[in-house]
Write a structure and sequence with these properties.
Layout: E1 2-9, E2 21-24, E3 30-36, E4 41-43, E5 46-49, E6 60-69
Antiparallel strand pairs: 1-6, 2-5, 3-6, 4-5
Amino acid sequence: PVQFQIQVTNNGAAALPTVTVTDTFPLSCLTFSSASPTQTSVAGNTITWANVGPLAVGASTTVTVNFASTG
């Protein structure tokens, strides 16, 4: 198994009620297994989370993504 963590931080001047995250991965060597929080969609090599917020100014959240190695 391969695990990645994506840290999302609000560096802006205003709180964010919703935060969309999109990430891509190489299909040639990874197969998506799961994510926390649960993803909204997986299409080809693109994973999308429609809302990992809200995020206050300066706040962060972490998205964890798990893959199986195929290469």
